Amino acid sequence: MLFLFNRNNIINKLFALFMFTYIIGYMKITVYNMKGSAGKTPIATNIALDREYALATNEPYNLLDTILPEERLFSLQPDEEFPDFPEGIDVVFDLAGLMSRDARPSIVSAVSQSDVVLVPIYNELKCIHAGIHTIRELLPYNKNIIVVATKLVKRKGETFKDWADSEDAKNIKAVVDHAIGQGTPVLPLKFSKVFDTIFEQERSIRQMMEEDALARYTYRDVAAQFDTLLSYLEKHYA
Ligand SMILES: Nc1ncnc2c1ncn2[C@@H]1O[C@H](COP(=O)(O)OP(=O)(O)O)[C@@H](O)[C@H]1O
Ligand SMILES: [Mg+2]
């Protein structure tokens, strides 16, 4: 009897541990910047396709239903609230609209339940302004903000090994450090046409590379950067 009791105890503990690791392995990620064309939808879609996340969006007229299976796509109006998604499913929220206007309910409900918020910012005055403003609006609802310094290009005469050392990335980081604080991670993502191709091919960057040697070569840098970004999220927020 004692033996049985002990054994059950161990089984219970193992079960609890299993459930714990099972649940903490999952993530809810928001991708948001109030600025359109920042790259939210391509980033969110690549995550959803590559890692089999559900995609939740407050843009009712999107073309995502051709790309993702119906059961993995949640779409609602900007002035509606997202339901609390249960623990144990991976969700990426692709948000548009303004938190100070009609899109407040959808944005606040998504951001509040997310483990982490990605704010894509490219090196252009309007986008940087909008990005900083966005981060300030988000912080009361979620402290886990990561800036994706995106659409990075190599300017004339520039040489660097790491895209984090590009003028584009350094400028974005300098503004974020100054306006928000040095603790905000800024991760680089170069400009690439592949972010249009994922919608044409309806496959993630990695999935395109698996079947095509030329794609494997062409997309190696951007794919590596995207992997680094996702590993960072998994390490810190899953
Ligand atoms: N590194 C990148 N990250 C995100 N988008 C990129 C990147 N490089 C190029 N793009 C392009 O920038 C555009 C931004 O996408 P868009 O849907 O307009 O963004 P949003 O959803 O923020 O409005 C797309 O055409 C995409 O292909
Ligand atoms: Mg979009």
What's the overall geometry? Answer: globular
Head-to-tail CA distance between termini: 40 Å
Name the CATH architecture: 3-Layer(aba) Sandwich
Oligomer: single chain
Structural class: alpha/beta
Largest sheet: 7 strands, parallel
Supply the number of helical segments.
9
Order of helices and strands: HEHEEEHEHEHEHHHH
Transmembrane segments: 14-31
Keywords: Membrane, Transmembrane, Transmembrane helix
Organism: Shimia haliotis
Protein name: CobQ/CobB/MinD/ParA nucleotide binding domain-containing protein
Describe the structure.
InterPro entries: P-loop_NTPase. Keywords: Membrane, Transmembrane, Transmembrane helix. This is CobQ/CobB/MinD/ParA nucleotide binding domain-containing protein. It comes from Shimia haliotis. This protein is an alpha/beta fold. It has one domain: Rossmann fold. The protein is built from 9 helices and 7 strands; from the N terminus they run αβαβββαβαβαβαααα. Strands 3-2-4-1-5-6-7 form a 7-stranded parallel sheet, sandwiched between helices. Helix 2 packs across helix 6. The longest helix is centred in the N-terminal third of the chain and has 23 residues. The protein is globular. The N and C termini lie far apart (40 Å). The structure holds adenosine-5'-diphosphate (ADP) and magnesium ion (MG). The site of magnesium ion has 3 residues, from helix 2.
